[in-house]
Amino acid sequence: MKSRVLLLLLPLLLGGISVWLVQSADDPAVPDHIAAAAAPGPAAATAAEATAVEATSQPTAIDPVRAAVAAATGQSVPFPDDAVWTEVRVVDKATGEPVPDATVTWSDQTTEERVNKDATLGQDDRRWLQRDQEQINAKYGWHAVSDASGHVRVHVTEQTLVLARRETRYGTLRLQKNTIPPRDGYRLEIEPDIEVLVKVLDSHGQPAAGVPIGVTQNDAQGKVLQLWRWQAQAITRAPDGIAALRHLQELRAEHRADKFAEWRARTYLPGHDDPGVAFQVETPAAEPVVLRLPPCGGVRVRAEMHGATLTAVKTIMLAENSREQGGMNWMMRRATHSRSVDDQGWAFFEHVPLGRSYRASASVMSGYLSSELKGPMTEDAVVTVVLSIGDQQMMLTGRLLDEQRAVLADQEFSLLVRAPYNENNTSFRTDANGRFLLFLGQWDKDTKHLQRVSIVSRPPASMLQADLTKRELRAGVQDAGDVVMQPGQLVVAGRLVSGDGPCTLKLQPAVERHEVPENAREARWQRQRDFQFHRDDNGHFEFRGDAQPGRYRLTLTSSSHLPVEPIEFTLGTKDLVVNVDTGAPLAASVLLPKDAPQGLRAVLVRDGEPATVDAATWRQGYNRLAAYPWSREPERYQLQWGSIAPGTYTLLLQLWCDPEPLATIGNVQVPAPKDRDARLVDIDLRSSVRIATVCLFDQNGQPIESYNGALFPIGQDPAKTWLGYDAHGEKASILVRTAPLELIVAKRGFRPRQVQCAAPTTEVKLDPWPTVELAFDGLQELPKETTLMVRFAPRDPSAARYRTMSNSGDRNDVMAAPRSSVAVAEGRAKVPIGEGPHDLMASVSRKRRTVAVDLPKGEPVFSNSPSLHVSVPGPALQKALDQLTAQETEKK
């Protein structure tokens, strides 16, 4: 799966989205996105599995893929009309020699769409196919064969993944639009393809098919540190119970030598905390790794409504009951097994360890069904579970009609449901009479009215909708009668144009209303979420929905075009024209030390405009003139600008925390000349910068692994916001100039220390803050579960701020003594104290409620003060206790 994820991951990361959750088929935390693994019923398990094996796999993993690629003599997928071609050279990774007659396949962002639309694939086939990019490329991508010099031509789109195989050698290359190729062209290096076969035996020593297999990183004690690629990678097949873990040479790039000891193959089943078996990546054994299951029984689950199969449920999940997971590591708790249902609605789980409690669950539109169950107790037992619609489930039935009151029979629609803390968008289909049954979730007193309940037609149908939001809901089935779908109120319509023709970019504008948000005092522009949007291929668009009177505007934001100023419009406008200027892309490449950390930015400054360096926009906000380096090569980094206005610019290469540019390149032309600006190719900064690593240790010489910390270059104005480098964990690697650098090392809970950072690695020992011991004389006995808490507060606190590339806040958080309170135990407490005069503060705490105790202000306390005897006035303490009790009473 890693190839597919990396192919799609880069643009999603740049846009701030997390993609792995969508693909995590075994994650119970995201039930609406879980892909089901098809499974036969108990009686037909063996035959059905044997049929699936013949169609999808063999006992060994490479042979069927080789066969599929070798058989691909014709190009089944057409090339795009706007294909941009480039040349790739296939070479041997060890020798650098060209590799002729290599089979080369490639795919792009459209390939996944073809996989999802292939009706010949069952859910199980699709699920496991998507974890092997080589098979996807062979069947759904493009292919060619390298010539005598190892060259082959491929086309490059937004994201292109190129794979090459020559017999047992294999390699990958990822290409992206608007990047600068290396000076000697693209090289696709192939090396011996490493695979490990895993054989699973049941408790009787017989092959076990249908068992998911994962790979984990483990420490020297065998503790699981991480599951590779976050999910199971293969599944065992009949008749021999073997799964193939493929392309394992990619594991070496993820080796963490400082914490990581070995790789282990393990079964990935709920109820079984498999220790796994270690294997060698460099020299894998020829014989399969053998894993053994504990004694297992079976579980079959079906969802029903009034005794009939609930056909809306297509997938059922089985997980170990969380209350019984106990010492199981967190990664194995994710081992939810999912199965698709058969024709009778049953999902069968054939490898269920004995003697544990489980939870079976299923998503049904906006509803969720679950049931706890006792698992099988003997190996011949099959536990049957029925998931029934609960009494509190909200369901809505009725018949859908169009605006002419014609029945909308056997058609697909979307159900949009928004509750206070979640939003759900699912599809459903009407029957031959146009009737529907909607599941809206559990009813409680807060969901009589959901924030939104709408039925909308699915593209490419017309924009019909039915808003059911105002309907008062209750538990059980409600009949809505005839529900008429009709076009919503026209909010705005118009055209997206670029130059003299329609805009062809895949853009969706947004509508905002000037209003006072909830819990706010002043009006501001708020995005409207409940309007339907439709756009055709000619750029015509419209928004429809229930629009209240007020001021509205259209906004359009994307890195693929130049900024578009918001356009205010009157409700019902039909001819709004939005001019979209695509500008011009620009690319550059830089050479940096290998594995350089973040800390470089390239900024274009248009001639005649001021060159400003604003630390607040380094990583926050959107600056289309700034680019940040990313790399797929050891020392070569790419810089990309998606859409720049034509003109002449100066390129500034800046380091974080450094006010002076590292390098300047003037007279940069946009659009770039056809033969490229040679000054922007491989800008060599390796002699100008270095990587400095600061390792942090406590007073006992142990690594400091806490998160909060920063490294501040000295010489900054104390009254202003300080810029610093992030110091997360026990070490921080920073990109700086080659000259020595003096830093203030600040870590929460420790006294700051000034050091000179001249060597590649600087070890810093930090001391904790001093403490003052307090003894409380005559302290009255406190009520049960009540604690007296104390801390020192600086008498003259400073209002200092700081900013790192990923964080900002009060500088005292990392440079002053902790502000947290210490509990008084047996009349004593040791309280941390910082520099300067401090006052003692006290409070009483019970069940997460805290009330301050009003202590009389005395002489200031300093870090060198001796042990202090403290007397807490009885009336002040009793007053705080009374307030604490009053808060608890009020809450009840």
Brief overview, please?
The chain is mainly beta and 892 residues long.
If you had to describe this structure to a student in words, what would you say it looks like?
The protein is built from 9 helices and 64 strands. With 892 residues, the protein is mainly beta. A 7-stranded mixed β-sheet has the order 3-2-5-6-7-1-4, with helices on one face. Strands 9, 10, 11, 13 and 14 form a 5-stranded antiparallel β-sheet that branches.
Write the layout of secondary structure elements.
Blueprint: H1 2-14, H2 20-23, H3 45-56, H4 62-71, E1 84-92, E2 103-108, H5 111-117, H6 123-129, H7 133-140, E3 142-145, E4 151-156, E5 159-166, E6 169-176, E7 186-192, E8 196-201, E9 212-218, E10 224-227, E11 234-235, E12 242-245, E13 262-267, E14 277-279, E15 289-292, E16 296-305, E17 308-309, E18 315-320, E19 337-340, E20 346-353, E21 357-364, E22 367-374, E23 382-388, E24 393-401, E25 412-419, E26 422-429, E27 435-442, E28 452-457, E29 464-467, E30 476-484, E31 486-487, E32 490-498, E33 501-502, E34 510-515, E35 524-527, E36 532-535, E37 540-544, E38 552-556, E39 564-569, E40 573-579, E41 584-591, E42 600-606, E43 626-627, E44 636-644, E45 647-655, E46 663-670, E47 683-684, E48 689-697, E49 709-713, E50 722-723, E51 725-726, E52 731-737, E53 741-747, E54 753-757, E55 761-765, E56 771-776, E57 787-794, E58 801-803, E59 808-810, H8 812-815, E60 822-823, E61 828-832, E62 838-846, E63 849-853, E64 868-870, H9 874-891
Parallel strand pairs: 1-7, 8-15, 16-23, 24-30, 32-40, 41-47, 48-55, 50-58, 56-64
Antiparallel strand pairs: 1-4, 2-3, 2-5, 5-6, 6-7, 8-12, 9-10, 9-11, 9-13, 13-14, 16-17, 16-20, 18-19, 18-21, 21-22, 24-27, 25-26, 25-28, 28-29, 29-31, 32-33, 32-37, 34-35, 34-38, 36-37, 38-39, 41-44, 42-43, 42-45, 45-46, 48-52, 49-51, 49-53, 53-54, 56-61, 57-60, 57-62, 58-59, 62-63
